[in-house]
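Render this sequence as a predicted structure.
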Amino acid sequence: MQSDLSLKQYFSGLINSNEQVPQLAKYLGYAGLIPFVAITAAIWSFEESSVNSLHQVLLSYAAIILSFMGAIHWGLAMASAQIRNSQLGFSVFPPLIAWFASFAPMVWNYSLLILTFILLCAFDLIMHRQNSVPQWYPLLRIPLSVIVVFSLITAQTNLLF
């Protein structure tokens, strides 16, 4: 069973797997990164008077994507022949945290969203090891999560300078 593998074996198996991410999922996933990368670049490129609005746009988009990511687990749990309580229960946390973060000061807003994206990716890997998500899912989620987290950290760093 996959859950008996060490982390090294698990990631080695992922890298060497013959699984292919469906083309449409890949295109849509990477298209979803465009606002993260473009707005983060704009935050560092535009004059200070525009930057606050750009931060708000980026944080709002990140919150929407977190809600969407939670909904994926809700849908997978509901579609399963046997409902997975952990997956169903966890699915509500990303949108709740995103909503809560929207009330926090901007620096903390970023921190909460970054942490939630990281925890969500870890949860996705746990669900993968339990065969609760498609086998190709981590091959898409890991690179997308890395770029999202990097973009949010880069944008958050702008608040400090």
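Summary. Residues 22-160 form one domain. The chain has eight helices and no strands.
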